[in-house]
Amino acid sequence: MIEMFDVWKTYPNGTNALKGINIRIEKGEFVYVVGPSGAGKSTFIKLMYREEKPTKGQIFLGGFNVSRIKERQIPLVRRSIGVVFQDFKLLPTLTVFENVAFAMEVIESNPKQIKPRVMDVLGLVKLKHKAKMLPSELSGGEQQRVALARALVNSPGIIIADEPTGNLDPETSWEIMKLFEEINQRGTTVVMATHNREIVNTMRKRVIAIEAGQIARDEQRGDYGYED
Amino acid sequence: MMSREGITVMKIRTLGRHVREGVKNLNRNGWMSFASVSAVTFTLFILGVFLILAMNVNYFAKSVEKQVEIRVFMADLTSKEDLQKFEQSVRNMPTVESVEFISKDEGLKQFKESMGDKAYLFDGLEKGNPLPDSFVVKTKLPQDTPAVANQIKQMKSVRSLNYGEGTVEKLFAATDTVRNVGIAFIIGLGFTAMFLIANTIKLTIVARRREIEIMKLVGATNWFIRWPFFVEGLLMGVTGALIPIILLAVGYYYLLDAIHSSFEASQLFNLLPLFPLVYQVALALLAIGAFIGIWGSLVSVRRFLRV
């Protein structure tokens, strides 16, 4: 569960990115975050995995008060969240398998559990057969699937995605969206910032629209609502 | 909950990973690592030369200082009792190390010996020895010599005394200067090496920026991220120290050898023996190398951990 109470974010240059956000996202929900560029979507997403700290207000996420935690506890919060980006953020010198295993190694998982678990999630994103390839040998959609596998490998309760289909063609985007849907149906909360109108309007979910740093709209099974 | 044993096993395994990653970093950025080890080698070599120089200057200064003594000449016809009284009161001064009595006859003998083959010119002086009785006074700290000399001068039965007034003060000033300049140089060079290592590690960190970003995002702790760089810095610092240690040890060995094989040189230069000097310098360079390596790595990583 994610909750925000009167969250404000002012950047050092004086920009008011968020102005009093109140939100509650239940466990297992699938939420699109939409809105014009520069309206505060990215800030909203970054506050959840504590890349940014709110200027004012409280954020609760999976039992942590993210707005109040100590620096030392940030890793613990991050372990309960999987993050997926528009640019995949894969390590180019590591194979598909190693990229996914990396996320387990750096949180000091038991090495005996790493291989079976990595092969498990690679099976989920249907890339088992490309485990030994380098990211450069894969298509964009396949790379995003590796990134998704990496986000999932530590079994987080929440997946946060920042424009995951932004760099992909429509057909590949749908493949990725089906995977998100599948993951969500297994009980993982999904919060996705997106500009993809077709997807939002077709795969109907809760839509939170952020405009000028405030929540302009919050509808179950909403539509995208903007002309591109 | 994890068992106690589980945690210990994990830590040893993790340590292995950090060392592997640290070594991998060194290889991955081979030329950069080479450049920075070379920089450390160069700096520590110069530092080592200065260290050896400073230690020898210190040694020389100490031995010169040790030779500083006060020669006190007593008034003629001073009674034995007064001589004893004088010796006792000088011996009782807290800054005085030793007092040695040299009688008139002894003084003449020493004087003749110092004249070498011209000693015959003074034959016969034994009858009416013109030399006074004298004392040689040494202080515990050479720097106290002028003060002690002044005190003795006021005492009864003293005719005159000599401790190289003026020269001694200049010598002390000179050895102090050499010592201070050496220390200043060593500190300056040490800092230069530190910044070089810090800079190299910063470059390797920039090369691994994405990796660190991902590590942070999936919840690696700061120390987990820091360790490989710590190992990398330590290895660079220690490797950088090993080469100058070997060069300096071999070089100093040959220097001593060359000096001892020439009579004039061995009279002129009284250098510290190879051991324990080499151990001391090696230890100092290793410690400084390790310290600047670790310091450099931690300073560089700190900036990048604020994701």
Key descriptive features of the protein:
heterodimer, A: 228 residues, alpha/beta, Rossmann fold, six-stranded mixed sheet, 7 helices, 10 strands, 32% helix, B: 307 residues, alpha+beta, Alpha-Beta Plaits, 2 domains, disordered N terminus
Describe the structure concisely.
Chain A: It comes from Brevibacillus parabrevis. The complex is a heterodimer of chains A (228) and B (307). Chain A is 32% helix and 26% strand.
Largest sheet of chain A: 6 strands, mixed
Largest interface: A-B, 23 and 19 residues
The total count of helices of chain A amounts to 7
Q: What CATH first level of chain A would be assigned?
A: Alpha Beta
* H-E order of chain A: EEEHEEHEHHHEHEHEE
Could you say which structural class the secondary elements and strand pairing of chain A correspond to? alpha/beta
Coarse morphology of chain A: globular
**Secondary-structure element series of chain B:** HHEHEHEHEHHHHH
Question: Could you report the average pLDDT of chain A, rounded to the nearest whole number?
Answer: 92
Keywords (chain A): ATP-binding, Cell cycle, Cell division, Cell membrane, Membrane, Nucleotide-binding, Transport
GO cellular component, one term (chain A): plasma membrane
Subunit structure (chain A): Homodimer. Forms a membrane-associated complex with FtsX.
Main location (chain A): membrane
Descriptive report:
Chain A: Keywords: ATP-binding, Cell cycle, Cell division, Cell membrane, Membrane, Nucleotide-binding, Transport. The complex is a heterodimer of chains A (228) and B (307). Chain A is an alpha/beta fold and 228 residues long. Chain A has helices spanning 41-48, 74-79, 96-105, 111-124, 140-152, 170-185, 197-202, and strands spanning 2-10, 16-25, 30-34, 56-61, 64-65, 81-85, 158-162, 189-193, 206-211, 214-219. Chain A is globular, with a radius of gyration of 17 Å. Chain B is α+β, with helices and mostly antiparallel strands. Chain B has 2 domains: 4-64 and 170-304, no CATH class; 69-163, Alpha-Beta Plaits (2-Layer Sandwich). The radius of gyration of chain B is 31 Å and the shape is elongated. Mean pLDDT of chain B is 81; it is low at 1-8. The chains are: A alpha/beta (228), B alpha+beta (307). The A-B interface holds A 49, 51, 71-72, 74-79, 83, 89, 91, 102-103, 105-108, 110-111, 150, 154 and B 10, 13-14, 17, 210-211, 213-222, 224-225, 307.
